[in-house]
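hey so i finally got around to running the thing on that chain from the lab meeting. sorry it took forever, my laptop kept dying and i had to restart like 3 times. anyway pasting the input first so we r on the same page abt which one it is
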Amino acid sequence: MTSINALRLNQHSGLLVCDEARFWNNEWVVILTPDKIRPLVAPDITRETGVILYIGSTGTSSYGDEIMESIRQHVSKTYHEAREKGEPIPEEILTVEGIVRNAFTVVKDLHHTHIDDFLRGCYGFVGQDLVQGYKLKAGRKYELAEDKIIKKAVKHMTFADYPPELSGLLNNAQVFAGYDPTDGFRIFIMEERNTVLEEVSDIFLAEGSGTITCDLVLSGFASSRSVVSRRKGINRVEALISMLEGVEEAHQLAAGVCGYPKIIYIDGQQTDLNRKIIEISDCRSRLATEITMASAHGFITPDAAYTLIDGLIFHEVPFQTIDQQFMALDQQKQLFRFLRGYRHKHQVAASPSKKGQQS
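ok and heres what got predicted. didnt touch it at all, straight out
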């Protein structure tokens, strides 16, 4: 499991934040390398269509990887087949909603493939055979008449009683977030367990092991702003600080959240692709998290945290510069102990949070 979060800032921009860890055996050995949020639209397609779309997957990592890669390949194949034939780009990949609806079909087909493999191994027939009541082999028709086997197969096909043999297909959920020139920035959620695909009506979505803590932080962040201000646009630095706070709290409380966070910022109004998408998953994302938590626990002021994160993430100020400025803010050096995991009371006089404008 993991923590995947998306937040819509305004009509054309938004943020995604996740951790990058997976646990892969009964001893809970953690690997800090998974790529939990990935692009579904290749750069060449984005340049031509303006569509930017990312997917985040929670649950069984191997199956999540298969889902994300299958959808990405479907988008690429659809685009290149049309281009090779000299045809217009298909409508289905010109909007976020179009791609997501096709993704639902891709995942449905993957489900059928895995279930058919399981049924074939156990009983010698596939789902279609079960539905029609017979199997064709070498031109001959064989009726499926043994009630005991049919009942077991139906349970596996319908996921009744949560069959353990297929639990890996039921644990996953996908978060889609991206921008297209027609509808702007949108967020969708798809779940295997409930076989549902829907657009997120709130400005944010939290999914995975960190849902509880991230929901609390992000719902508080969203509800503290009026409907008018949310529609007008959310400050990107303040939003990122709240998202990082939620993920770090999840790291402290949830076994399935660990590692450096990945930060993705999408701004569809930018003309340069390198400015349309900011993707950070290195020492800068960890430093941004430490700055956020230092502010939340009173070691530095909210204004100082705002300025540091704005420069680090959105204005390409070098890591070393921000790190030195951050370390210089706490003269008593108690910040060093806090960042190493020691918890104690420490407060500084904090000025009101800055409501700065995006550039």
